[in-house]
Fold:
Amino acid sequence: MANDVDVKSIMSISSKSEGSTAPLTRTKLRNAPLHERCSISDMVKIKEAFQEAYRNKMLPNEFRNLLRTLLNVEYDDDEFKILFLKINTSREGEIDWDELVSHLLLGYFLNDPENQRASLQLPIMGLPTIMRSQHRHPISRICFCPDVAKDRSTDNLTGNYITASRDGMINWWSLDMTLLRTAFSSSPHLKVRTTWVTDMVCMPDVNIIVTSSTERDLRFYDCTAKTFTLKIVITSWEYMICTMYYHFDKDPNEKCTLICGDVGGNVRVLQFSPIKRGPFRNQAGRALIQLRHIDLQRRPQLLAEMRLTELKRVHTEWVRQVSYYASLHCIVSCATCPDSLLMCDLAGSKTHNMFRLDKGIHCFVFDEEAHVLVTGGPDCVVRVWNPFVPSKASAALHGHHAGIVAVLLQNRGTVVYSISRDRVIKVWDVQGQACVQNIFFQTYIDIPAQVGERTPISCVYNKATRELILGAIKIAILVLDEQINPHHTDGFTHSRAIAKILYNPLFKVIITAGMDSIIINWDPVTGKRNVLIRDAHTRLLHGELIPVEITAACFDPGNQLLLTGARNGTLKVWNFNTGVCLKEMTIEHMCEVTNCFWVEGRILAVGWNRHVTEFEEGGTTRTGKSWETRHSDDVLAAAARHPVTLATSSYNSELIFWKLETGQPYRRFSCTEPMLRIKMQYSKRAASPHTSTGPASHRGSSMLRRPSAGGARESVIDAASAMEKARARRVSTVSLPARAQLMRQLAVHAMIFLQTRPVHMRVASLMVSLENGQVQCWSDHPAGGIQGSFQGIHTAGDYVSAFATDVENNYLFTGTTVGYIKVWLMTNYLTHEKVHISMPKLRLKFPFLWRDRIEGRAKRCVRDQPLPLLLNSYRAHLRCVTSLAYVDHLELLFSGSSDYSVRAWRVSGEYVGTLGSFVPWSLDTTRFPPDVYKVASFTTFKVWRGGWVSRYVPGQVEIDKLRDITELELRTRTFGAPPPPPLLGHYFTLPARPERQPPIQLDDSLQTIPPVFPSTHGVYSAGKTPPNSRTGARHAP
Structure:
C-alpha cells in the first residue's frame, strides 16, 4: 500500500489547486481525464475509500460510484470500461491503490511539456560526408563569408566558405563545397622562410580577408573581383595574435569592429568606418600601407581611418576566442585561466562582467535574443549562463570525457551542440538539462578519424542550411537537426520505416511500430500521441545498447497486451497503455522474426529459422519449443485463422498449412506452380527442428537471393542501412523478362485470412501476394487448394506488399511497393453464396467507379478481370507501403510506408492527415499529401477530390455564358433587372457644393479714378491738383 508520501508526490506533479475541484452545482463532467480532476484532498479521500474497501480493492461498479460521488465525474459505459482496463494492469477485474497511483503518474507524465516536446528525429542524421581539404597542411580556420547586399544585409544562403591552413594557403568553396579558387598569404618581408598562419577572418562588407601569423603581424588582403592583393600590413605586435572576430552593422554610420586576442591575454580592437571602404579604398599611388603596432598607438595620423583600442592583461593565458555581443555593445573574450570569460564594453566602465572558473573556458557561444551564454572548457563540462549573472552557471551538463573545443546553439538557445577533443559530438536539451542523444539512440556520434585524429578541429555552422562544416586534415559535413519543408511533406510518424500498424478495438487506439525500435500509441480521431516506448528491442554491441528494428507485432486474444518481434530474434510482451515490458523471449540469436501470433494460451513466431516456434503464454522460459522444419528457406510471410489454421510461406515459394491445435502440417504447395500436388512426407528425420546447421548455412545454397541476404545482419540503425533494409526485400521496381520469371521461384511477401469465410474446399479464404504482382486465393480446407488469382498491380515490377480487410471481409485493401493503395470488393468472389450488390451505392461511396473520358492505367489493367471488382486505386506514398490497418466504425484506412509516415485515408480515398504531423488535421476536412501531389496521376487526383475532375479539353470552344441575352439588352446595355440605385454606390457620390460667395461690390461714386503722379521735387500738398489733371484743364483759360 502506498503511504501519504505517495499522495503528495503525485500532486506535486499536478498543476491543480489545493482545494477540491468538484463544482458546487450538481452538473457532472462527462468523460474528464482522471488525473486532471484530482486534488490533494480528493486523493486523500480516495485513499481512505480504498483502505475501507474489501481487501483494499474495488470492483468496477464500486470505483465508478466513487468517482461519481467524490469527483463529480460521470463516464459513459465504453469510456469507463477503457479507463478501468487501463488502470487494472494486473487484469484481475479489481483495482487497488497502487494501480491507481501508477495510472495518475502516467497521466501527469503525458501532460508534461518536456514529454510533449520530445521528438523522434535524430539531431544528427546519418554519417558525415568526408572530402579532401585540398590543403597540404591541416586547416587552422574555416569561416563563412556571406554576400552583402546594398542595404548591408546578409543572407546565409548566398556566399562562400573559406578555409586557411597554417602554411598560408587559402581556399574558397561554394555552398555545395566545390573548390572555386586558391590564394596564398605570405609575409612581404620574408623571402625564403615561411611563417604559420594562426587565424583568419573575413570582412564581407569591405571584401577584405585578414590573416594573423607567428610573425606578430596582421595582413589585410583585398578580394574584390576575385583578386588577392595585400593592402595593409600591421607588424611588430607585442604578442602573436591567435584569434580574431569581425562585426559590422547594417547602419553604415556605425563603426566596424575587428577584435583580436593574443597569447599575452590582451584584447585589441580595431575600428573603422565602412563608408567608401574606409582605409581599404583604392587610392592612386597608395598600393601597400605598412606600419607598426606602435605607430597606431603613438602616431594614429599614419592611418587616420582606423582607431586602435587596447584592453591589456584581461587574462593571464592565451585568449582562446573573442566575439562581439551586439545588443549590449560588449566585447567577449575567454581563456583557460581562472579569469575565464570577460564581457565588457570598449571603455570598460558601463559593463564589466568576469566569469570565473578554475580551469578556464576554451570556447563559448551566445544567443542575443534569448540572452543565453553557453561555455565549454578543459573540465569537460558544458555550462549554461545568464549573461547578467556571472557568479554561477544556470546549468552544468556533464558527459564528455575530453576537453570541449567548440559549442553551437540552435532553436533560440534551447539546443546545444558540443564538440570535444576526442572527436565526440553531443546534443543537449537546455530546458531538460539532459543529453538528447542519451534519450534517443546513442550516447555520442564519432567524427571519423580521417578528419583528424590528433589535429585541432575548426568548425563553422550555417544557420540557413543547418550544416556543420568541420575542418582538420580533411573536411566533414554534418547536417544538424534537418528541418522539415512543409511544401514537401506533412512530417513523419517515425524516424525510420514503418514495420507494423495495428488497430485495437478495445481501447480504440492505433499502435505503430517502426524500424527505429519505437512503439507509439495514437488516438485515431485526433492524431494525438498517447504513449511512446523507445528502444523497445536492443542488443549489446561493444558495451553499448543498440536499438534493433521491430519486424512483427500483434495483440493478444483479449486485445489488452502487445507482442512484438525484432530482427535479432527477440519477442517482447508489452502493456501498450503504460509502456511496461512484461515478458521477453527469443526464437534464435540474430534470426529475424517475420511474423508472430497470439492464440489462446500460446505464442507462435516464425522467421528466418524456417520453422514455427511456440511459447507458453504464462511460461517463464525465454526459449520455446520448435515445430517441424518443413521449409527449406526463410519464412517471409504467415497468417493465422483462429482456431483452425496457420499458413506459412517462404522465400522459395513454399506454402504450408498447419493445424493450430496440434502443430501438424497437413498440406504443402508451391505458389510458383499452384496446381502441383506435393505429397506430405511424415518421418522422424523431418520432424527434427535442428536438421540444419543454422540459417546462415542455407543462405549461400541458392543463387537467386533477396538483396538483404548474405553475411551477418547488423542491427545498427543509421540512415543508409535503415533505408536499404526497409526497401531491400519489399521494393522491386525492375521488371524481369518473362523467361527469367519462369526460371526462378516466386517469393511470397504478404498473406491474410478472410476470417468470416467458411472452411470449404471451394471457398477461397487465404490471400497470398507473389513477387510477380499476382494475388493468389487459396482454400485452407484439406481437400482445397488454389481457387483463383487476380492481378493486384498496374505497374511493371510492382507487387502487393501489405493486406488489410474489414470486419465483415467485404473489402480487401492492398498496398504495393510503389505506394499505391487498391480496394477490392470480395463479395461474391470465390464463394459459394451469391449476394446482390448495389452498384449505385458503391459509386456514391467510391468516386473511382465514376466513368472517365479516358481511362487510367488502373482501370485499363482490370478490363479483362471482372472479379474481384476494383473499387478504388490511388497513390498514397512515394515509397513502399509496408502495413495497412482499417478502422471500421470510423471508415478510416491507415497506411504505413518506408517513407517514415503513417497516413489516414477515408475509405473513398480522400487524404485526412499524417500521424505525428505538425499540420493539424480533423476527420471532417481533407487535403492533398504534399509529396505525392507533385507526381500524382489524374486518377489519383480524381479520388482525392471526391470524384470532381476538370472537364476542360484543350482546343474546345468555350461555352457562351451570355447566350440568353437579347439583342435589345446588348444594344441598350440593360442585362436583366436594373441595379438598385445609386448605380455607383456610396463610394462615388459627388462632394457637396461650396457656399455661395457674395458678389464683389465696386465703388463707382467717382466719375473717374484720379491717377497718382510721382514727383521728383516733392509731393503735392493737400487740396492741390496737378496741372495736367482733367479738373485743372477744365478751369484753364
